[in-house]
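Side project, low priority. Logging it here so it doesn't get lost.
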Amino acid sequence: MKYQLFGHTGLRVSELCLGTMGFGTENGWGADFEGSKAVFEAYANAGGNFLDTANIYTQGTSEKFLGEFIGSDRDHYVLATKYSLKDRNGDPNYAGNHRKNMMRSVQESLKRLQTDYIDVLWLHIWDFTTHPEEVLLAMNDLISKGLVHYIGISDTPAWRVAQANTIAELRGWNRFAGLQVEYSLINRTAERDLLPVAKALNLTLTPWAPLAGGALTGKYIKGDKGRLPENSKRLNERNTQIAQKVIEVANALGCTPAQVALRWTMQRNQSVVPIVGATKASQIVDALGAVTIDIPATSLKELNEVSDIELGFPGDFFNEPGVIDVTYAQTKSQIIFRD
């Protein structure tokens, strides 16, 4: 396992992040304590140090399990958890981005995790009611107290991410260093705005569902629908074609479809650390193989073409020949562009 810097910080995180949404069985699926420990140990023994959980995962069990697993070597791990989503029904202040919910949620997470600090605190989802200044100042206070080291933002519009980090920079507050979004060969819509904003602001992208709920492993083609509803957007002709291409590339490279799908997200010409969830040790062992392969340019082109999306305006507009002509005066090929 190799390591990369987390966004614009000096924090070193492993190439793959372990997602622990399935640690615990409170949601009717997932792994029990021993099964979760086996997944964790397989990941840790391979050199993984980046752990992703949340206050809401399995009603707090995910955090409790992780607290047990890392207790003997807490400082070795980069522990990330989230706040924003509900801890109680019927109480408006037990959810949201505001300071009151943040402080309460973080304190409860610290207890469940049996730790004095959180390495990365993610805002889980934008609530459209809290001003970014309130969020950033509250997070800054947590960092000043040593309760949190770094901050990230998840499931939020690109314009809001850019606004928040601009405010933080102007006011001398801590900026978001990571951006967490859904992203995979089956769902590339984040390329319209979210991937560009992450690259422009030097944020590490941590895609969730990089295997599209297992669709990119080929299991749905084999008839294993698991917990997937029949009307799922992941069950359609286009996605089946994408999965078949992933299988084809995997066979050519002598690896597994999961490894190809994960590696594709890692070869995006920017900082990307996919989140890999697993409820069985065999699943995480398979996923870890993604760090040992490299998808050649020809195969990358095929994967990109079969999964291509319309960027819409202004993305596709910028690529129209007439627009390129008037923008660069027929000299675009002579201009060196910076990444």
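Brief comment: The chain has two domains: 3-308, 309-339.
Revisit when time allows.
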